[in-house]
Amino acid sequence: DMGWVRHPPSADARDVHCAPAGATKTIYLIRHAEGFHNRAGERDPKEYGSEAYADARLTARGWRQCEHFKETLESRDAYGKMLETCELVVVSPLTRAMETAAGMFGSVDGDGCVLMEATRAEAMKACERPALRCDARLRGGKKFVALEMVREQIGGNPCDRRRSVSEYRREFPGVDFSLIEDEDDVLWKPGRENREPEPVLRARARKFLDWCFDREEDSIIVVTHSAFMCNLMVEYCFGGHVPSENMREHMHAWPQNCECRPLVVVDTRRKLTTSPFYHAGGDPEDEEE
Fold first, then answer.
1. Residue 8 carries which DSSP code?
2. What is the pLDDT of residues 22-53, one digit of tens each?
3. Can you give the pLDDT at residue 289?
4. Which of 44, 46, 62, 170 is deepest in the core (most CB within 10 A)?
């Protein structure tokens, strides 16, 4: 009975939002660490269009950024909590994102599955790295899943063109590629005129959020890219309401390499999943007289 509700929400209610826990997901949006294309593009933006940086890997600085991420969260006693509560790691099927996931959540001396095989140094293209194994705290049925929906803005720049799934499976044996439908990249097209329009990218971000809510996991790490992160946060920040200045500074700012933004996402259209902490109250149905 909703008859007791006699007054609509006031204007002040726009600044505070309540939602049932069963209508939410916790998503850690992480931008990949610095790639060789980033370093070249900072010097000359035209370099983003160079074939020399196709599906770029991480620079030495990028690998240090992954270590810095771990050290920073460890200093706050947050890294272990993230790994223990996370139920799924989603990665973009581009090398720099998968290397970032391995650098953040893998270790040389771990005893979990091999996330990434060792790589050899190649001038301006790759750093020499040892094989990295999954952190033990991410074991126990938790998966690394590659998903096309969280790729960078598609088309135009060779750095955003992925390689074949077969190559990736050899290099990243700890990542599940079963959700990638095509062996080769059929989505990427050359030329700036074929760059994915922002409205299409934002629709893809919505499709990804729907995918998250269709799954049973409540806490998901997503290693992705700057344009995907920004368009998701701008489009779906506070359900389309204009955010306050301090929220806009956080949600609309372009992310740094290796930046992690934890978000609570609400979908009010969904049938609620029952929180283990929810109790309907009242009397026991089987109460004896």
1. P
2. 889 999 999 999 999 999 999 999 999 999 99
3. 46
4. 62
Positions annotated as catalytic residues are 32, 152
Burial classification of residue 154, based on how many CB atoms lie within 10 Å of its CB (0-12 exposed, 13-18 middle, 19 or more buried):
buried
> CA 236 to CA 201: how far, in whole Å?
13
Do residues 236 and 209 lie in contact, with contact meaning Cβ atoms separated by under 8 Å?
A: yes
Contact 59, 119 (CB under 8 A): no
What is the secondary structure of 40-101 as a DSSP string? HHHH-GGGGG-GGGTT--B-HHHHHHHHHHHHHHHHTT-HHHHHHH--EEEE-SSHHHHHHH
Token match 């920073």: residue?
72
Torsion sign (Cα): 139, 180, 205, 152: positive
Residue 177 near residue 185, CB atoms below 8 Å: no
Residues 205 and 207: their CA atoms lie apart, in Å, by 5
Distance CA 111, CA 146 (A): 22
Tokens of 257: 């390499």
Burial class (CB in 10 A: 0-12, 13-18, 19+), 285: exposed
Closest CA to 222 of 262, 252, 254: 262
Q: Which of 122, 135, 121 is nearest to 66 (CA)?
A: 135
The three-state secondary structure class of 252 is coil
Given a cut of 50, the residues of the chain with pLDDT beneath it are: 289
Segment 220-237, tens digit of pLDDT: 999 999 999 999 998 887
